[in-house]
Design brief:
This protein has helices at about 25-30, 60-65, 80-90, 105-110, 125-130, 195-210, 245-270, 305-310, 340-345, 365, 440-455, and strands spanning about 35-40, 70-75, 135-140, 165, 215-220, 275-280, 310-315, 325-330, 335, 380, 405, 410-415, 420-425. By secondary structure, it is of the alpha/beta class. It folds into 2 domains: about 30-375, 3-Layer(aba) Sandwich (Alkaline Phosphatase, subunit A), CATH 3.40.720.10; about 400-455, Arylsulfatase, C-terminal domain, CATH 3.30.1120.10. The radius of gyration is 21 Å and the shape is globular.
Length: about 475
Protein backbone atom coordinates (compact mmCIF):
# COMPACT_ATOMS: atom_id res chain seq x y z
CA UNK A 1 0.00 0.00 0.00
CA UNK A 2 1.37 3.40 -0.91
CA UNK A 3 2.25 5.68 1.96
CA UNK A 4 -0.18 8.56 2.32
CA UNK A 5 0.94 12.10 3.02
CA UNK A 6 -0.79 14.22 5.63
CA UNK A 7 -1.74 17.25 3.57
CA UNK A 8 -4.34 19.95 4.21
CA UNK A 9 -7.56 19.43 2.29
CA UNK A 10 -9.52 22.37 0.90
CA UNK A 11 -13.15 21.66 0.09
CA UNK A 12 -14.94 23.62 -2.62
CA UNK A 13 -17.60 25.90 -1.21
CA UNK A 14 -16.07 26.13 2.27
CA UNK A 15 -14.49 29.42 3.38
CA UNK A 16 -10.74 29.89 3.25
CA UNK A 17 -9.15 31.32 6.37
CA UNK A 18 -6.61 34.12 6.33
CA UNK A 19 -3.65 34.53 8.65
CA UNK A 20 -4.33 35.53 12.22
CA UNK A 21 -3.28 38.90 13.58
CA UNK A 22 -1.17 37.34 16.31
CA UNK A 23 2.38 37.15 15.06
CA UNK A 24 4.23 38.19 18.18
CA UNK A 25 5.14 34.96 19.89
CA UNK A 26 5.84 36.73 23.18
CA UNK A 27 2.26 37.92 23.15
CA UNK A 28 1.04 34.42 22.35
CA UNK A 29 3.03 32.91 25.22
CA UNK A 30 1.50 35.38 27.67
CA UNK A 31 -1.97 34.05 26.92
CA UNK A 32 -3.60 31.09 28.57
CA UNK A 33 -3.38 28.17 26.12
CA UNK A 34 -6.16 27.50 23.67
CA UNK A 35 -7.61 24.03 24.27
CA UNK A 36 -9.34 22.03 21.56
CA UNK A 37 -10.95 18.78 22.67
CA UNK A 38 -11.70 16.45 19.75
CA UNK A 39 -14.26 13.83 20.76
CA UNK A 40 -14.72 11.35 17.94
CA UNK A 41 -18.00 9.47 17.76
CA UNK A 42 -17.75 5.66 18.12
CA UNK A 43 -14.04 5.40 17.25
CA UNK A 44 -12.42 2.23 18.54
CA UNK A 45 -9.02 1.79 20.17
CA UNK A 46 -7.82 -0.09 17.09
CA UNK A 47 -9.04 2.35 14.43
CA UNK A 48 -5.90 4.53 14.53
CA UNK A 49 -2.60 3.48 12.99
CA UNK A 50 -0.45 4.23 16.06
CA UNK A 51 -2.78 2.04 18.13
CA UNK A 52 -2.33 -0.87 15.74
CA UNK A 53 -5.11 -0.06 13.31
CA UNK A 54 -4.59 -1.25 9.74
CA UNK A 55 -7.92 -0.46 8.05
CA UNK A 56 -6.49 2.54 6.22
CA UNK A 57 -3.42 4.66 7.02
CA UNK A 58 -4.10 7.52 9.45
CA UNK A 59 -1.00 9.67 8.88
CA UNK A 60 -2.41 12.89 10.33
CA UNK A 61 -3.56 11.37 13.62
CA UNK A 62 -0.32 9.38 13.78
CA UNK A 63 1.67 12.59 13.25
CA UNK A 64 -0.23 14.20 16.10
CA UNK A 65 0.85 11.30 18.33
CA UNK A 66 4.46 11.67 17.16
CA UNK A 67 4.34 15.33 18.18
CA UNK A 68 2.73 14.69 21.56
CA UNK A 69 1.84 11.95 24.06
CA UNK A 70 -0.13 8.81 23.28
CA UNK A 71 -1.89 7.22 26.27
CA UNK A 72 -2.57 3.50 26.32
CA UNK A 73 -4.89 3.41 29.35
CA UNK A 74 -7.50 6.13 28.89
CA UNK A 75 -11.16 5.37 29.63
CA UNK A 76 -14.45 6.93 28.64
CA UNK A 77 -17.10 7.53 31.30
CA UNK A 78 -19.52 5.11 29.63
CA UNK A 79 -19.66 2.66 26.72
CA UNK A 80 -22.39 4.68 25.00
CA UNK A 81 -22.75 8.23 23.75
CA UNK A 82 -24.86 10.44 26.05
CA UNK A 83 -23.54 9.29 29.45
CA UNK A 84 -20.00 9.31 28.08
CA UNK A 85 -20.41 12.96 27.09
CA UNK A 86 -22.10 13.88 30.37
CA UNK A 87 -19.23 12.37 32.35
CA UNK A 88 -16.66 14.23 30.29
CA UNK A 89 -18.39 17.61 30.69
CA UNK A 90 -19.11 17.30 34.41
CA UNK A 91 -16.28 15.15 35.75
CA UNK A 92 -18.97 13.19 37.56
CA UNK A 93 -20.49 9.76 37.01
CA UNK A 94 -23.22 10.40 34.44
CA UNK A 95 -25.73 8.36 36.44
CA UNK A 96 -25.49 10.99 39.16
CA UNK A 97 -27.27 13.24 36.67
CA UNK A 98 -29.67 10.46 35.62
CA UNK A 99 -28.11 9.81 32.23
CA UNK A 100 -27.52 6.07 31.75
CA UNK A 101 -27.98 5.35 28.04
CA UNK A 102 -28.31 7.26 24.78
CA UNK A 103 -30.81 10.11 25.02
CA UNK A 104 -33.77 9.63 22.69
CA UNK A 105 -37.58 10.01 22.90
CA UNK A 106 -39.27 10.83 26.17
CA UNK A 107 -40.69 7.31 26.30
CA UNK A 108 -37.31 5.73 25.61
CA UNK A 109 -35.61 7.90 28.21
CA UNK A 110 -38.20 6.87 30.77
CA UNK A 111 -37.64 3.19 29.97
CA UNK A 112 -33.93 3.73 30.60
CA UNK A 113 -34.76 5.30 34.00
CA UNK A 114 -33.21 8.47 32.64
CA UNK A 115 -33.71 12.23 32.42
CA UNK A 116 -34.45 13.90 29.07
CA UNK A 117 -31.38 16.17 29.17
CA UNK A 118 -28.36 17.14 31.23
CA UNK A 119 -29.42 19.22 34.22
CA UNK A 120 -28.20 22.84 33.84
CA UNK A 121 -27.32 22.79 37.54
CA UNK A 122 -24.56 20.29 36.81
CA UNK A 123 -21.06 21.81 36.82
CA UNK A 124 -19.69 21.89 33.28
CA UNK A 125 -16.18 22.29 31.96
CA UNK A 126 -17.09 24.98 29.38
CA UNK A 127 -18.81 27.07 32.08
CA UNK A 128 -15.70 26.82 34.28
CA UNK A 129 -13.53 27.85 31.34
CA UNK A 130 -15.83 30.76 30.52
CA UNK A 131 -15.73 31.92 34.13
CA UNK A 132 -11.94 31.70 33.89
CA UNK A 133 -11.75 34.14 30.97
CA UNK A 134 -12.06 31.74 28.03
CA UNK A 135 -14.17 32.10 24.91
CA UNK A 136 -16.03 28.81 24.52
CA UNK A 137 -17.36 27.00 21.47
CA UNK A 138 -19.07 23.71 20.69
CA UNK A 139 -18.94 22.42 17.13
CA UNK A 140 -20.30 18.94 16.45
CA UNK A 141 -22.61 16.38 17.95
CA UNK A 142 -24.18 17.16 21.34
CA UNK A 143 -26.52 14.30 22.35
CA UNK A 144 -27.10 15.66 25.85
CA UNK A 145 -30.66 16.79 25.27
CA UNK A 146 -32.89 17.91 22.42
CA UNK A 147 -34.09 16.22 19.27
CA UNK A 148 -36.90 13.76 18.62
CA UNK A 149 -39.82 14.76 20.86
CA UNK A 150 -37.70 16.44 23.55
CA UNK A 151 -38.44 20.08 22.76
CA UNK A 152 -37.67 21.67 26.13
CA UNK A 153 -33.95 20.93 26.42
CA UNK A 154 -31.83 23.89 27.60
CA UNK A 155 -29.78 25.71 24.97
CA UNK A 156 -26.00 25.59 24.60
CA UNK A 157 -25.46 28.91 26.37
CA UNK A 158 -27.00 27.45 29.53
CA UNK A 159 -24.03 25.08 29.75
CA UNK A 160 -21.41 27.78 29.24
CA UNK A 161 -20.89 28.01 25.46
CA UNK A 162 -20.50 31.32 23.64
CA UNK A 163 -20.97 29.84 20.16
CA UNK A 164 -22.12 26.52 18.73
CA UNK A 165 -23.11 24.55 15.65
CA UNK A 166 -24.60 21.11 16.12
CA UNK A 167 -26.58 18.26 14.64
CA UNK A 168 -30.21 17.21 15.09
CA UNK A 169 -29.53 15.61 18.49
CA UNK A 170 -29.33 19.01 20.15
CA UNK A 171 -31.57 21.84 21.38
CA UNK A 172 -30.60 24.08 18.44
CA UNK A 173 -29.61 22.06 15.34
CA UNK A 174 -27.74 23.84 12.56
CA UNK A 175 -30.20 24.15 9.62
CA UNK A 176 -27.41 23.53 7.11
CA UNK A 177 -26.97 20.06 8.64
CA UNK A 178 -30.57 19.20 9.43
CA UNK A 179 -33.07 19.52 6.63
CA UNK A 180 -34.96 16.71 8.37
CA UNK A 181 -35.24 15.49 11.95
CA UNK A 182 -32.67 12.74 11.57
CA UNK A 183 -28.91 12.10 11.52
CA UNK A 184 -28.60 13.18 7.90
CA UNK A 185 -30.55 13.47 4.68
CA UNK A 186 -29.72 13.88 1.00
CA UNK A 187 -31.35 17.32 1.18
CA UNK A 188 -28.91 18.66 3.80
CA UNK A 189 -26.96 21.68 2.54
CA UNK A 190 -23.78 20.37 4.17
CA UNK A 191 -23.58 16.74 3.10
CA UNK A 192 -22.68 14.06 5.61
CA UNK A 193 -19.27 13.45 4.02
CA UNK A 194 -18.41 17.18 4.42
CA UNK A 195 -19.63 17.50 7.99
CA UNK A 196 -16.30 17.19 9.79
CA UNK A 197 -14.79 19.71 7.38
CA UNK A 198 -17.63 22.08 8.29
CA UNK A 199 -16.97 21.70 12.01
CA UNK A 200 -13.23 22.17 11.44
CA UNK A 201 -13.99 25.40 9.56
CA UNK A 202 -16.19 26.56 12.41
CA UNK A 203 -13.40 25.84 14.90
CA UNK A 204 -10.73 27.66 12.90
CA UNK A 205 -12.98 30.63 12.31
CA UNK A 206 -13.79 30.80 16.04
CA UNK A 207 -10.07 30.76 16.88
CA UNK A 208 -9.34 33.46 14.31
CA UNK A 209 -12.06 35.83 15.48
CA UNK A 210 -11.03 35.39 19.14
CA UNK A 211 -7.29 35.37 18.54
CA UNK A 212 -6.58 37.86 21.32
CA UNK A 213 -8.29 35.72 23.96
CA UNK A 214 -7.87 32.11 25.11
CA UNK A 215 -10.36 29.71 23.53
CA UNK A 216 -11.83 26.42 24.69
CA UNK A 217 -13.47 24.41 21.91
CA UNK A 218 -15.29 21.10 21.98
CA UNK A 219 -14.90 19.72 18.45
CA UNK A 220 -17.17 16.66 18.47
CA UNK A 221 -17.52 15.25 14.91
CA UNK A 222 -20.05 12.49 14.33
CA UNK A 223 -19.21 10.94 10.95
CA UNK A 224 -17.35 7.92 12.41
CA UNK A 225 -20.76 6.90 13.78
CA UNK A 226 -22.98 4.96 11.37
CA UNK A 227 -24.36 5.55 8.81
CA UNK A 228 -21.01 5.82 7.04
CA UNK A 229 -21.44 7.96 3.95
CA UNK A 230 -18.08 8.67 2.44
CA UNK A 231 -18.69 10.78 -0.64
CA UNK A 232 -21.25 11.72 -3.26
CA UNK A 233 -20.63 8.57 -5.32
CA UNK A 234 -21.59 6.42 -2.34
CA UNK A 235 -24.79 8.33 -1.72
CA UNK A 236 -26.62 5.76 -3.87
CA UNK A 237 -25.74 3.09 -1.27
CA UNK A 238 -27.81 4.75 1.42
CA UNK A 239 -29.41 3.23 3.41
CA UNK A 240 -28.07 -0.10 2.13
CA UNK A 241 -24.38 -0.64 2.78
CA UNK A 242 -23.82 2.16 5.27
CA UNK A 243 -22.33 -0.21 7.84
CA UNK A 244 -20.00 -1.95 5.43
CA UNK A 245 -16.26 -2.15 5.99
CA UNK A 246 -15.71 -0.42 2.65
CA UNK A 247 -17.76 2.59 3.71
CA UNK A 248 -16.02 2.68 7.08
CA UNK A 249 -12.60 2.85 5.44
CA UNK A 250 -13.71 5.66 3.15
CA UNK A 251 -15.01 7.73 6.07
CA UNK A 252 -11.96 7.04 8.27
CA UNK A 253 -9.60 8.14 5.49
CA UNK A 254 -11.45 11.44 5.08
CA UNK A 255 -11.70 11.94 8.83
CA UNK A 256 -7.94 11.63 9.21
CA UNK A 257 -7.44 14.26 6.49
CA UNK A 258 -9.70 16.67 8.35
CA UNK A 259 -7.75 16.23 11.58
CA UNK A 260 -4.65 17.12 9.58
CA UNK A 261 -6.45 20.11 8.13
CA UNK A 262 -7.35 21.32 11.62
CA UNK A 263 -3.76 21.08 12.83
CA UNK A 264 -2.46 22.83 9.73
CA UNK A 265 -5.10 25.54 10.12
CA UNK A 266 -3.94 26.20 13.69
CA UNK A 267 -0.39 26.68 12.37
CA UNK A 268 -1.61 28.95 9.58
CA UNK A 269 -3.22 31.15 12.24
CA UNK A 270 0.10 31.31 14.10
CA UNK A 271 -1.62 29.81 17.12
CA UNK A 272 0.24 26.51 17.18
CA UNK A 273 2.64 27.68 19.89
CA UNK A 274 -0.19 28.32 22.28
CA UNK A 275 -2.75 25.63 21.53
CA UNK A 276 -3.26 22.24 23.16
CA UNK A 277 -5.15 19.69 21.07
CA UNK A 278 -6.62 16.50 22.52
CA UNK A 279 -7.92 13.61 20.42
CA UNK A 280 -10.06 10.77 21.76
CA UNK A 281 -13.41 8.97 21.38
CA UNK A 282 -16.66 8.84 23.34
CA UNK A 283 -17.04 5.04 23.45
CA UNK A 284 -16.15 1.80 21.72
CA UNK A 285 -16.88 0.95 18.08
CA UNK A 286 -20.02 -0.46 16.48
CA UNK A 287 -19.79 -2.59 14.49
CA UNK A 288 -16.34 -3.70 15.57
CA UNK A 289 -15.50 -6.00 12.60
CA UNK A 290 -14.51 -9.18 14.44
CA UNK A 291 -13.09 -7.17 17.36
CA UNK A 292 -10.38 -5.57 15.25
CA UNK A 293 -11.72 -2.04 15.72
CA UNK A 294 -11.46 -2.51 19.50
CA UNK A 295 -7.77 -3.37 19.30
CA UNK A 296 -8.69 -7.04 19.64
CA UNK A 297 -9.86 -6.43 23.19
CA UNK A 298 -13.09 -7.97 24.38
CA UNK A 299 -16.15 -5.79 24.00
CA UNK A 300 -17.35 -2.89 21.87
CA UNK A 301 -19.91 -0.10 22.14
CA UNK A 302 -22.54 -0.87 24.83
CA UNK A 303 -20.16 -3.17 26.73
CA UNK A 304 -18.20 -2.61 29.96
CA UNK A 305 -15.40 -4.83 28.74
CA UNK A 306 -12.25 -2.97 27.65
CA UNK A 307 -13.28 -2.64 24.02
CA UNK A 308 -16.27 -0.55 25.08
CA UNK A 309 -14.48 1.92 27.34
CA UNK A 310 -10.71 1.95 26.62
CA UNK A 311 -10.15 4.67 24.03
CA UNK A 312 -7.33 6.19 22.02
CA UNK A 313 -6.12 9.40 23.67
CA UNK A 314 -3.52 11.78 22.25
CA UNK A 315 -2.51 15.21 23.57
CA UNK A 316 -0.27 17.53 21.60
CA UNK A 317 1.03 21.08 21.54
CA UNK A 318 4.10 22.80 20.10
CA UNK A 319 4.67 25.27 22.90
CA UNK A 320 6.94 22.84 24.68
CA UNK A 321 4.68 22.08 27.65
CA UNK A 322 3.95 18.60 26.34
CA UNK A 323 6.82 16.31 25.27
CA UNK A 324 6.95 14.87 21.77
CA UNK A 325 6.90 11.24 20.73
CA UNK A 326 6.06 9.92 24.20
CA UNK A 327 3.94 6.86 24.99
CA UNK A 328 2.40 6.65 28.44
CA UNK A 329 1.54 3.02 29.11
CA UNK A 330 1.21 3.28 32.90
CA UNK A 331 -1.02 6.26 33.78
CA UNK A 332 -4.67 5.25 34.09
CA UNK A 333 -6.72 8.26 32.98
CA UNK A 334 -10.48 8.73 32.82
CA UNK A 335 -12.75 11.17 31.01
CA UNK A 336 -13.94 12.07 34.51
CA UNK A 337 -10.48 13.56 35.11
CA UNK A 338 -10.64 16.05 32.26
CA UNK A 339 -12.54 18.77 34.15
CA UNK A 340 -9.89 19.17 36.86
CA UNK A 341 -6.93 18.38 34.64
CA UNK A 342 -7.75 20.87 31.90
CA UNK A 343 -8.61 23.59 34.39
CA UNK A 344 -5.17 23.02 35.90
CA UNK A 345 -3.49 23.31 32.49
CA UNK A 346 -5.46 26.48 31.77
CA UNK A 347 -4.89 28.11 35.15
CA UNK A 348 -8.64 28.22 35.70
CA UNK A 349 -10.19 27.99 39.16
CA UNK A 350 -12.53 25.11 39.87
CA UNK A 351 -16.10 25.88 40.91
CA UNK A 352 -16.65 26.27 44.64
CA UNK A 353 -16.68 22.90 46.42
CA UNK A 354 -16.12 21.04 43.11
CA UNK A 355 -13.35 18.83 44.52
CA UNK A 356 -15.87 17.39 46.98
CA UNK A 357 -18.31 16.64 44.15
CA UNK A 358 -16.16 15.27 41.35
CA UNK A 359 -15.59 11.59 40.71
CA UNK A 360 -12.41 12.35 38.79
CA UNK A 361 -8.96 13.47 39.82
CA UNK A 362 -6.35 15.95 38.63
CA UNK A 363 -4.17 14.04 36.18
CA UNK A 364 -2.54 17.14 34.68
CA UNK A 365 0.95 15.91 35.50
CA UNK A 366 0.35 12.90 33.27
CA UNK A 367 -1.01 15.15 30.51
CA UNK A 368 2.24 17.12 30.72
CA UNK A 369 4.33 14.01 30.29
CA UNK A 370 5.04 12.77 33.81
CA UNK A 371 3.38 9.37 34.43
CA UNK A 372 1.04 9.61 37.38
CA UNK A 373 -0.32 6.98 39.72
CA UNK A 374 -4.08 6.95 39.98
CA UNK A 375 -5.52 7.31 43.48
CA UNK A 376 -9.22 6.85 42.77
CA UNK A 377 -11.00 3.80 41.44
CA UNK A 378 -12.92 4.13 38.19
CA UNK A 379 -16.54 2.93 38.18
CA UNK A 380 -18.96 2.28 35.33
CA UNK A 381 -22.53 1.12 34.95
CA UNK A 382 -24.55 0.25 31.88
CA UNK A 383 -27.81 -1.63 31.16
CA UNK A 384 -30.01 -1.09 34.21
CA UNK A 385 -32.77 -3.24 32.79
CA UNK A 386 -33.54 -5.39 29.77
CA UNK A 387 -35.68 -2.86 27.94
CA UNK A 388 -34.79 -1.71 24.44
CA UNK A 389 -33.46 1.60 25.72
CA UNK A 390 -30.20 -0.22 26.48
CA UNK A 391 -28.73 -1.64 23.24
CA UNK A 392 -26.54 -4.73 23.56
CA UNK A 393 -23.49 -5.75 21.54
CA UNK A 394 -24.29 -8.12 18.71
CA UNK A 395 -21.91 -10.86 19.87
CA UNK A 396 -23.05 -12.56 23.11
CA UNK A 397 -19.47 -12.79 24.42
CA UNK A 398 -19.29 -8.98 24.38
CA UNK A 399 -22.38 -8.52 26.58
CA UNK A 400 -20.94 -7.55 29.96
CA UNK A 401 -22.30 -7.49 33.50
CA UNK A 402 -23.86 -4.12 34.29
CA UNK A 403 -21.38 -2.76 36.88
CA UNK A 404 -17.58 -2.51 36.72
CA UNK A 405 -14.74 -1.12 38.81
CA UNK A 406 -11.03 -0.74 38.12
CA UNK A 407 -8.47 -0.37 40.91
CA UNK A 408 -4.81 -0.55 40.00
CA UNK A 409 -4.33 -3.42 37.57
CA UNK A 410 -7.53 -5.14 38.72
CA UNK A 411 -10.94 -4.92 37.12
CA UNK A 412 -14.08 -6.55 38.47
CA UNK A 413 -17.42 -6.82 36.68
CA UNK A 414 -20.65 -7.91 38.31
CA UNK A 415 -24.40 -7.50 37.94
CA UNK A 416 -26.27 -5.42 40.49
CA UNK A 417 -28.02 -8.60 41.67
CA UNK A 418 -24.52 -10.03 42.40
CA UNK A 419 -24.60 -12.51 39.52
CA UNK A 420 -22.02 -13.05 36.79
CA UNK A 421 -18.96 -11.94 38.77
CA UNK A 422 -15.68 -11.65 36.83
CA UNK A 423 -12.17 -10.55 37.88
CA UNK A 424 -9.30 -9.73 35.51
CA UNK A 425 -5.73 -8.51 35.86
CA UNK A 426 -5.51 -5.96 33.05
CA UNK A 427 -1.74 -5.68 33.12
CA UNK A 428 -1.43 -9.39 32.40
CA UNK A 429 -4.66 -9.88 30.48
CA UNK A 430 -6.15 -6.76 28.82
CA UNK A 431 -8.15 -9.09 26.54
CA UNK A 432 -10.22 -10.17 29.58
CA UNK A 433 -10.30 -13.81 28.61
CA UNK A 434 -8.67 -15.28 31.77
CA UNK A 435 -11.05 -14.93 34.71
CA UNK A 436 -9.19 -15.16 38.08
CA UNK A 437 -11.70 -14.50 40.90
CA UNK A 438 -11.22 -17.95 42.44
CA UNK A 439 -7.47 -17.41 42.53
CA UNK A 440 -7.67 -14.03 44.31
CA UNK A 441 -10.59 -14.23 46.81
CA UNK A 442 -9.52 -11.22 48.92
CA UNK A 443 -9.22 -8.88 45.94
CA UNK A 444 -12.52 -10.22 44.63
CA UNK A 445 -14.25 -9.59 47.96
CA UNK A 446 -12.89 -6.04 48.24
CA UNK A 447 -13.78 -4.99 44.70
CA UNK A 448 -17.19 -6.68 44.81
CA UNK A 449 -18.10 -4.67 47.91
CA UNK A 450 -16.83 -1.45 46.34
CA UNK A 451 -18.69 -2.02 43.07
CA UNK A 452 -22.03 -2.85 44.68
CA UNK A 453 -21.78 -0.10 47.30
CA UNK A 454 -21.12 2.41 44.55
CA UNK A 455 -23.94 1.11 42.35
CA UNK A 456 -26.42 1.20 45.21
CA UNK A 457 -25.46 4.82 45.94
CA UNK A 458 -26.62 6.06 42.53
CA UNK A 459 -29.88 8.00 42.31
CA UNK A 460 -32.99 6.39 40.93
CA UNK A 461 -35.00 8.54 38.54
CA UNK A 462 -38.67 9.11 39.21
CA UNK A 463 -39.96 9.59 35.69
CA UNK A 464 -42.49 12.28 34.85
CA UNK A 465 -43.29 10.65 31.49
CA UNK A 466 -46.90 9.59 31.09
Amino acid sequence: MKKQLCLPVILTGLPLLSSCSITNQKEAKSLKPNIIFILTDDMGYGDVGVYGGDFVPTPCIDKMAAEGIRFEQYYSASPISSPSRAGLLTGMHPARWNINSYLQTRKGNSEAEMADFLDVNAPTLPRAMKDGGYKTGHFGKWHLGGGRDVDNAPGFTAYGYDEYASTYESPDPDPLLTSTNWIWAKTDSIKRWNRTAYFVDKTLDFLKRNSGEPCFVNLWPDDMHTPWVGNIEEETLVPKGTESEKNFKTVLKEYDKQIGRLLQGIKDLNLDRNTIVIFTSDNGPAPSFRGSRAGNMRGCKASLFEGGTRMPFIIQDTKGLIPTGKVDSTSVVSALDMFQSLCALAGVKLPVNYKNQTDGTNMSKALLGKPQERKKEIYWEYRRNNKGAFPKPGAPENVSPNVAVRKGDWKLLINKDESDLMLYNLRENPQENVEVSAKYPQITKELKEKALTWRNSLPQLISSFK
